[in-house]
Amino acid sequence: MAILTSSIARKVAMALSGLFLVFFLAQHFTINITSVIDPETFNSLSHFMGHNFVVQFIAQPILIIGVIFHFVMGVVLELRNRSARQISYKSFKGNKNSSWASRNMIISGAVILAFLGLHFYDFWFPEIVHKYVESNPLDATRYYPELLHKFESPVRTGLYCLAFVLLALHLWHGFSSSFQSMGWNNKYSKGLRGFTKFYAIFIPLGFIFIALYLHFNQIH
Amino acid sequence: MKLTLKIWRQKNANTKGELKTYPIDGIEGDMSFLEMLDVLNEGLINKGDEPVVFDHDCREGICGACSLQINGEPHGPDRLVTTCQLHMRMFNDGDTIVIEPFRAKAFPVIKDLVVDRSAFDRIQQAGGYISVNTSGNTIDANTIPINKHDADESFEAATCIGCGACVAACKNASAMLFTSAKVSQFALLPQGRIEATERVLNMVAQMDKEGFGNCTNTGACEIECPKGISLENIARMNREYLSASLKG
């Protein structure tokens, strides 16, 4: 069916999966910021997220599928787009007519994917081992100390901050672009674009603040 | 003005091309870019060399025949002009100018700087028209009331000259700005609504079949378009396409 294979259908699929991940990012940030404001709240929210059936066995698999889909579709589109110009220009001044972020979504996306690997290694896999392999008793107070421990290393904290900068660039183009892909371009677009640009800066900057706060908080 | 030209020379579609260097002198700022190439070709012909082949026709920015990627930008460094309207005053004495054909798999090089843009014709033929009964019973278009805003937007979309600069500028060699302009100019008018569903489905299918890339909304096409065709047309085409697909 053309609706599933056409270039526009692929754009829309990319946009929808991206918007889903943007929504998830806001939820993730909301929980993480409580680690700075009130560690006890962070512990309770983390415990809830880690043991709620709906979150664990419905939302989490949907999220993982969403990430994989967005990644695979991104690679498919990149390969198709590269094949559409088999001989490249000797001189091509892309920065005269478009932003670096818009032209290099595959690079920012690849860095974010690598970061996700590190993030899973740091938090998701140890959590799975803790809950399902070692079958440890329930402890709703362990999350904040574990979080602090992860941000002890300046290298890891630096890597997280770098990934968030690339996330900001990815969102800077991707968030507003998703509405254009879905055909949303009207009198409200200017305001919406403003919101997407604000979000693209605010959320990654917030994550950077959390990482740095947790890193420096334990030193002093 | 003394310049160094680096021009893509390619014998035909089956041979490999390369950039060749040509020094040129006596160029004046009031000359158009194509006139500068005419001067170069006169010199080449006088020396018994083969002239550089390039597309041109009206030389007043309305036919869409001229193309050329000039110093990394389609139609050169000026905005809202075609190559034939680009003046040499945009360059400085001693400059090196790199001139290449528009590059896309769907625009194969025919010779030197000339590419085959018939893919655009086939997209247009797939639905870029309205079917009108011309037996004498046709209602005069001027008797059909049309909202001023829609008429203006339709006209703006219709100013697309199909030069291919959007494809050339896009990092993905996408033809969505061209196709969307051709979809929009009819979609906005009552006469075009009758065949709107088939039109957008067929034109997008043909665009994909030709091997153009996917649009990633970089906006390069809008900036480089000599007629200032807006990205809003792409959003409109996406809406039209989704709605047409759901109708079946």
List the defining traits of the structure above.
heterodimer, A: 220 residues, mainly alpha, 9 helices, B: 248 residues, Ubiquitin-like (UB roll), five-stranded mixed sheet, 36% helix, elongated
How would you explain this protein's 3D organization?
The complex is a heterodimer of chains A (220) and B (248). Chain A is mostly helical and 220 residues long. Helices cover 81% and strands 0% of the residues of chain A. The longest helix of chain A is centred in the first third of the chain and has 31 residues, at 7-37. Chain A is globular. With 248 residues, chain B is α+β, with helices and mostly antiparallel strands. Chain B folds into two domains: 3-111, Ubiquitin-like (UB roll) (Roll); 117-247, Fumarate Reductase Iron-sulfur Protein, Chain B, domain 2, CATH 1.10.1060.10. In chain B, α3 runs antiparallel to α5. The chains are: A mainly alpha (220), B alpha+beta (248). At the A-B interface, α2, α4 and α8 of A face α7, α8 and α9 of B.
What is the compact description of this entry?
The complex is a heterodimer of chains A (220) and B (248). With 220 residues, chain A is mainly α.
Shape of chain A: globular
Number of strands of chain A: 0
CATH topology of the largest domain in chain B: Fumarate Reductase Iron-sulfur Protein, Chain B, domain 2
β-strand amount of chain A: under 5%
Please provide the ordered H/E string of secondary-structure elements of chain A.
HHHHHHHHH
Which overall shape of chain B is indicated by the principal axes computed on the Cα atoms? elongated
Largest sheet of chain B: 5 strands, mixed
Radius of gyration of chain B, in Å, reads 20 Å
CATH H level of the largest domain in chain B: which superfamily?
A: Alpha-helical ferredoxin
Q: Provide the CATH architecture of the largest domain in chain B.
A: Orthogonal Bundle
